[in-house]
Amino acid sequence: MIPNLRQFQVFPAIPDKLRPLSEMSKNLWWVWNHDAAELFRRLDRELWEESNRNPVQLLGTLSPQQLNEAANDQGYMAQLTRVYRQFKEHVEGTGWFRTTHDVAGDVAGNKSPMLVAYFSAEFGLHESLPIYSGGLGVLAGDHLKSASEIDVPLVGVGLLYRQGYFQQYLSSDGWQQESYPDLDFYNLVVEPFVGADGKPVIVRVDLPDNAVFIRVWKVAVGRVTLHLLDTNLEENAPADRDITARLYGGGTEMRIKQEIVLGIGGVSALSALGIKPTVFHMNEGHSAFLALERIRILLENSPMTFDEARQFVAAGSVFTTHTPVPAGIDMFPPELVSRYFRNYHAGLKLDEEGFLALGREDVTNKRQGFSMAVLALRLADGCNAVSKLHGEVSRDMWHSIWPGVPKQEVPITHVTNGIHVRSWVSGEIVSVLDRYLGDAWTNNPMSPDAWADVETIPDEELWRAHERCRERLVVWTRQALKKQIQARGGTLSDIALAEQVLDPDALTIGFARRFATYKRGTLLLRDRERITQIISNSQRPVQFIFAGKAHPADQGGKELIRAIVDFARDAGLRKRFVFIENYDMGVARMLVQGVDVWLNTPRRPYEASGTSGMKASANGGLNLSVLDGWWVEGYDPSVGWAIGRGEQYADIEVADSVEAQSLYDTLERGVVPTFYERNTGGVPVEWVKRMKANLRKLAPFFNTNRMVAQYGEKLYLPAHQRSRTLMADNYKPAIELAHTKARLRGNWHKIKVVGVSHSGSGHYKVGESINVEALIELPDLGTDLGTVEVRVQIYSGPVTSDQNIDRPQVTELSQASQVAPGRYMYKGTIVCRNSGRQGFGVRVLPGGANMVTAFEPGLIQWG
Fold first, then answer.
1. Burial 432-465, CB ≥16 within 10 A → b, else e
2. Looking at residues 725-747, what average pLDDT do you find?
3. Domain membership flag for residue 736
4. In 33-184, which residue ranges form alpha helices assigned H by DSSP?
5. Is residue 745 situated within a structural domain?
6. Is it the case that residue 43 has pLDDT exceeding 60?
7. CATH no. for residue 161?
8. Where in the sequence is the domain holding 690, given as residue range(s)?
């Protein structure tokens, strides 16, 4: 450290005529506008690439002469004027969601405007801001972009990691190495928030032995603002300055510090800025402490109990789980949680045991760890998975939190992930779509009608556009490999070979993702002789481009990378099988735009969703994937290929063997012949037909505009309206609902299904009805709790071999009479809709007003 270092900041000398360019450089709107990105690229194409396509750094590096030349270029200025007008129309205008839904509040202040605070541990907005590691962050970044596009009132909250996620490079033997260069915030799109006094906005959180101070930064994403938290301040101890050093860096104790800063510090930051969200969205469990902080604030000057305050906070909370296995969820040792929250739980009006129980799946097991996902599930009324299959997996994984509730009815819904189409589609494909679809696909990509005219695109024109993308990918790959080899000190012959890899006309298959063992990055290599034959076919060659990182602590993932690199060194394969280092959004963009096929081989059902295949699909690429995650919903034979038929195997070796054979068979009999069968004009007609089917069928659904609209209508609006309802009259409805639940829990054991009778002999024909009567005992449920607070239902459907109901139908029974003190007769009818072995059960559920679902209190009584 240099003593008495005096710091100052240098700003680019931007001519007045280029001020709009400077303004747009500080808003990531340009990421999804090709014309805007081209404005920066035109200034200096080589410097644009060297800056990692960072316009802030670019403008600060250009010479005054270059800037003045642009300012005096009439063509350039005409483009700048047109693009800047589009930019202002976007950031200052009003979009679909805000005009369609009543979210503005009213002038008298009787109703608060809806505002969503979207918390995530990582945000992948662009490669020049590397504060993401993979799919979770890229999904979060696309979420913000689409919120801006469709105008959902939303702010983001995350952490500003000064070293981001690690930079990957490979040793000479193919082993992954990591480096952590510091980011220069002052040459990035981020800017510090400054208060009315001209000083940076700083908030604090209290750790067990000291306070941590947090600076708040901002990133503009179209209409949306992302708030990023930074602990690298002189006021903090060195260990605390490192809390926001690395994404997913350090051990368990560092992780709990980061999540305290994100959740508790994030709530404090929004409050300090005068931002008052009505809905809090936790993207994964990393930020779940925010719900505790909201409860603590509510209780600070209130006579409310924890349960009363929790009732209100949960009403306005949404939790999205992305993890299909418990091992992938943050779990903290109880003693660590106790140490970090020893001075906190009293503010929640809880003792230590009550606090720890919030994070246990089994509240009675004091040895269980503190799960952030369990905490979020308990403190959010709206919970969702990220694909249809993942919803089924999540309901199965977490059903113990709602004991007695059938797995199909566990209150975890799903909103299938998507991608922000305009961020990922190549300029070549954009030009084609603009010519034949007009502006409908950009203005409303979630509308099937916007994509209907894909069929009018001439086959040759779409194919040639895609071929140009593949050619660009090949040129880029050669350059990337050359740089990798030079950095490792490779020989001149190795460097020369890098300039010859890949054939711009050959079938090109991409595989890029985090190298976790369940993703099976080496499944393709299971039968090396067979895959070698496929690659080496001189008449119909196939080439592969691999990329991806393993977590620094994942030795198994690193072994997979080394196996891939070792295979790529085979002298006979080196030109057709390559591994690209340091996978990031820039590498991903090149791959999904240029490959013909996107390969995905996870072990079902461990891929919650996946989005990289969606990105390839939006560019006309075809998917070859295991039927897991999103591909279960997207697949049909007209859009791509499936590996297997969705089977799940108890034996991992059997699964890998069977699915590897399916992969080879599909390549040999389906993918390769379809690609190389051409008409007289050299166009693979059947292949292009599938490309068009991808755009027409998949693009309207698997995009984040549709996804964010569903979040808005399915989760945000209900949460906003529910929280407004429960806060009325000084939170009286929330307090009453908490008391109702307490009475129900205290008396639920007294409820009994005394008897059930039904009409008929037990043999019925399809279409016939069965009359059901149930005698229910409802004694002494509380002074102001009557029979209206319960619901009696028939749960019917086909009976499975393990005596469960498949495809259940729920029929409400109505109260017919009171037959004795505390005893009531309920009646209803079920219709025999299908033949076969059927069955029904009778159950009692809570039925009070203001409950988000009948399963919310976790109470159910079966007859």
1. bbeeebeeebbebbbeeebbeebeebebeebbeb
2. 90
3. no
4. 34-43, 45-50, 55-61, 64-71, 74-92, 96-100, 135-150
5. no
6. yes
7. 3.40.50.2000
8. 425-702
Percentage of the chain beyond pLDDT 90 is 79
* Mean pLDDT computed over 426-449: 95
Report strand pairing: 382-385 vs 317-320: parallel
One domain for residues 242 and 338: yes
Helix runs in 697-854, H state only: 704-710, 717-747
Which of 625, 634, 623, 622 shows the shortest CA–CA distance to 603? 625
Reported as a pLDDT band with limits 50, 70 and 90, residue 804 is confident
Q: For the chain, how many structural domains are there in total?
A: 4
Q: Are residues 223 and 364 in the same domain?
A: yes
How far is residue 522's CA from residue 516's CA, in Å, rounded to a whole number? 11
Mean pLDDT of 385-408: 94
Looking at residue 816, its pLDDT comes to 82
- Residues 53-87 as b/e (b if ≥16 CB within 10 A, e otherwise) read bbbbbbbbbbeeeebeebbeeeebeebbeebbeeb
Torsion of CA 618, 624, 630, 636, to 10 degrees: 90
Distance between CA atoms of 526 and 150, rounded to whole angstroms? 45
- The two tokens of residue 508 are 């090109």
Instruction: Tell me which long-range contacts 556-559 makes (C-beta under 8 A, separation of at least 24).
Output: 556/516, 556/517, 557/514, 557/515, 557/516, 557/517, 558/175, 558/176, 558/515
Distance CA 639, CA 197 (A): 58
Query: Phi-psi region for residue 541, left (φ > 0), alpha (ψ -120 to 50) or beta?
Result: beta
Same domain, yes or no: 188 and 285:
yes
CB distance 412 to 391 below 8 Å: yes
C-alpha to C-alpha distance for 759 and 404, rounded to whole angstroms? 27
- Domain final residue pick, 671, 687, 702: 702
Whole-number Å distance between alpha carbons of 143 and 164? 20
- Kindly tell me if the per-residue pLDDT of 107 is higher than 50: no
For the domain that residue 801 is a member of, what is the CATH number? Answer: 2.60.40
364 phi/psi in degrees, rounded to 5: -85, -10
Mean pLDDT of 314-328: 91
3-class DSSP state of 373: helix
> How confident is the model at residue 20, as a pLDDT?
96
Residues 45-70 have pLDDT tens digits of 999 999 999 999 999 999 999 999 99
Contact, 230 vs 244, CB < 8 A? Answer: yes
Pairing verdict, β 507-512 and 597-600: parallel
pLDDT at 784 over 50: no
Instruction: Tell me the pLDDT tens digit for each residue of 157-202.
Output: 999 999 999 999 999 889 999 999 999 999 999 999 998 888 999 9
Which among 373, 336, 343, 339 has a CA at the least distance from the CA of 358? 373
d(CA 679, CA 176): 44
H helix intervals, 578-703: 585-594, 612-618, 631-634, 652-666, 672-676, 685-693
Check residue 782 and give its pLDDT: 46
Instruction: Answer whether residue 10 is part of any domain.
Output: no
* Contact call for residues 670 and 654 (beta carbons, < 8 A): no
Assigned token pair, 439: 């502006």
**Shared domain check, 123 and 50:** no
Give the pLDDT mean for 816-830.
Answer: 89
Which residue, of 414, 442, 463, is where some domain finishes? 414
Residues 6+ apart with CB under 8 A from 360: 368, 369, 370, 371, 374
In a domain, 727, yes or no: no
DSSP 519: G
- Identify the pLDDT of residue 575: 94
- Written as one letter, the residue type at 760 is G
Angstrom CA distances, 518 to 507, 606, 610, stand at 26, 7, 13
Backbone angles phi, psi at 507, to 5 degrees: -60, 120
In sequence order, what are the residues at sequence separation of 6 or more whose Cβ sits closer than 8 angstroms to the Cβ of residue 224?
A: 144, 145, 147, 148, 154, 155, 156
| Nearest residue to 668 via CA among 573, 531, 546 | 531
356 & 462 share domain: no
Q: Are residues 854 and 784 in the same domain?
A: yes
Contact 725, 733 (CB under 8 A): yes
